[in-house]
Amino acid sequence: MTDFTGQDLAGSLFHRVHLGGSTFREVHLTDALLHDVDLSRTRVRAAYLDGVRMTGVEVPDLEIYGELGRLVVNGVDVVPLVEAELDRRTPERVLMRPTDVEGFREAFTVLDRLWSDTVDRARALPPDHLHEQVDEEWSFTETLRHLGFAHACWVSGVILADPSPWHPLDLPWDEAPQIEGVPWDRDVRPSLDDVLELRSRRRATVQAVLDDLDDEGLARPVISATPFMADAEGLTVATCLRVVINEEWEHRLYAERDLAVLS
After folding, report:
1. Shortest CA distance to 238 belongs to which of 101, 94, 108?
2. What pTM was estimated for this model as a whole?
3. Total domains in the fold of the chain
4. CB 263: neighbour CB atoms within 10 A?
5. What DSSP letter does each residue of 213-226 carry, written as one string?
6. Residue 4 and which of 87, 92, 173, 262 are 20 to 30 A apart at CA?
7. Where are the alpha helices (DSSP H) in the chain?
8. Which residue ranges does the record assign to the DinB-like domain (predicted)?
């Protein structure tokens, strides 16, 4: 296997080259031209595809999971159609776009109810299954740990300006920069009860914020006290709470999907 680690291959021409089974990590493909290529069974994770144009393509089977802003297929922007169908399938999804404090409180209450059902499904499985990954995604336990990190980052670290809100079980996203003092234990296997106990504390922090909040307070500008999002501009309390709501909603769907496989 040829190793190109740390090399600058910008502007290279790959013509009639076999790259099947290759791995690309932290690779810049900005402005790359892919012409007459076979991408069968390609897996793309944590990619940014702004301004990508595909023409003359054949797509017999393609799945996309992610945040979609504009996706035009044969001249039709399908994102509004997808959003409407997702709202139809799960009416609670509409509540995840709150605009006032009461709406935020309702959104978190709904999330509590939905996650309670998901946790019940998880408890029905053997404990080892909760540490098992499906299709290289996070295990159920890792998912809950990551949500703990999201709460610590956006609620405690930004809204409450705590410079060190972390717990040893918090789990940053896979591509996050490694920062001294921020937990990054990929091998620990805590019990579900231990993770849920921490999750309960994180939820109590959110509730305390909501209890002291009014609609005017949602627009209060905030700045991150941790290294994460430190350069972000225009953050408000509402922005941070929406990020947490979105994380909770989407990761529960991922968890439900994987629990179905594990069952």
Report:
1. 101
2. 0.85
3. 1
4. 10
5. --HHHHT-B---SS
6. 173
7. 79-89, 101-123, 140-151, 192-211, 215-218, 237-262
8. 111-254
User: Does residue 11 fall inside a structural domain?
Assistant: no
For residue 51, being part of any structural domain is answered with: no
Cα–Cα distance for residue pair 46/44, rounded to 1 Å: 7
CATH label of the domain that carries residue 151: 1.20.120.450
Range of the domain at 169: 94-262
Does the residue 79 lie in any domain?
A: no
The amino acid at residue 50 is D
Pick the closest to residue 228 from 169, 158, 170, 143 (CA basis).
158
pLDDT tens string, the chain, 263 residues long: the values are: 788 999 998 999 999 999 888 988 888 888 888 888 898 888 888 888 899 898 988 999 999 988 899 999 999 999 999 999 999 999 999 999 999 999 999 999 999 999 999 999 999 999 999 999 998 899 999 999 999 999 999 999 999 999 999 999 999 998 888 898 999 898 999 999 999 999 999 999 999 999 999 999 999 999 999 999 999 999 999 999 999 999 999 999 999 999 999 99
